[in-house]
């Protein structure tokens, strides 16, 4: 610390930290999933007042609605803080949203259903970004250097460089892409 700094961090620092945290996980998927769980859990226990008339929206499946809503909020938090299981959490959120249609007042009057479906779909579709420290391999010719000997444990090069393979970037051999010689 220098004599000029006060030791406190400004708003820009925290905003950039939050931005980096948000970018490393399915943030919007978790937010939509949690937002979908709130109306699903809330509406069966809510009362609406119209003048002197009170309308109770409670149903016989109030406990089921509460369980679905709490599970959706939990899945949203799981997407944020344990993004490794994002695919499971997304599929579970989609299934719970579908179950909420008959159980929880048409899925929280369709609001919670749509938000939970969107959050689940975003979670299933989210893929972590590539590490910034790694550079993508060049598309040009292979670098020249000593050829690996037969006993070398090296990572194989691009699939196109191996003669006799018709695999594309989306297919995988049964041997995991390793050379079968040896």
Describe what this molecule looks like in 3D.
By secondary structure, this protein is mainly alpha-helical. It has a domain at 26-125. It has 6 helices and 2 strands, in the order H-H-E-E-H-H-H-H. The protein has helices at 11-23, 27-42, 62-81, 86-103, 105-109, 111-125, and strands at 47-50, 53-56. It has a two-stranded antiparallel sheet with strand order 1-2. The chain is flat and about 70 Å long. The mean pLDDT is 79. Keywords: Membrane, Transmembrane, Transmembrane helix. Residues 165-182 have a biased composition (Polar residues).
Per-chain topology:
Elements: H1 11-23, H2 27-42, E1 47-50, E2 53-56, H3 62-81, H4 86-103, H5 105-109, H6 111-125
Antiparallel strand pairs: 1-2
Protein name: Integral membrane protein
Organism: Streptomyces violascens
Transmembrane segments: 27-45, 57-77, 84-103, 109-127
Please count the helical segments. 6
H and E string: HHEEHHHH
- The coarse silhouette is flat
Number of strands: 2
Return the structural class: mainly alpha
Uncertain stretches of 5 or more adjacent residues: none
Helical amount: 40-55%
- Termini gap: 59 Å
Indicate the mean pLDDT: 79
Spatial strand arrangement across the major sheet: 1-2
Specify the biggest β-sheet. 2 strands, antiparallel
How many whole angstroms does the radius of gyration measure?
A: 26 Å
Strand content: under 5%
Features:
DUF6114, membrane, 2 strands, transmembrane helix, two-stranded antiparallel ribbon, mainly alpha, 48% helix, 182 residues
């Amino acid at each position: 610390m220098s004599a000029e700094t006060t030791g406190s961090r400004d708003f820009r620092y925290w905003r950039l930290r939050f931005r980096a945290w948000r970018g490393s996980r399915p943030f919007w998927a978790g937010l939509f999933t949690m937002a979908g769980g709130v109306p699903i859990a809330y509406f069966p226990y809510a009362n609406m007042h119209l003048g002197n008339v009170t309308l109770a929206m409670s149903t016989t499946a109030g406990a089921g609605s509460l369980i679905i809503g709490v599970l959706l909020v939990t899945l949203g938090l799981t997407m944020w803080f344990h993004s490794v299981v994002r695919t499971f959490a997304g599929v579970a959120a989609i299934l719970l949203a579908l179950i909420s249609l008959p159980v929880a007042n048409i899925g929280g009057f369709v609001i919670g259903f749509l938000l939970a479906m969107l959050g689940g779909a975003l979670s299933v579709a989210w893929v972590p970004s590539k590490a910034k420290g790694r550079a993508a391999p060049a598309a040009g010719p292979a670098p020249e250097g000593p050829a690996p000997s037969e006993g070398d444990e090296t990572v194989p090069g691009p699939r196109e460089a191996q003669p006799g393979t018709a695999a594309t970037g989306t297919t995988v051999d049964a041997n995991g892409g390793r050379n079968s010689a040896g």
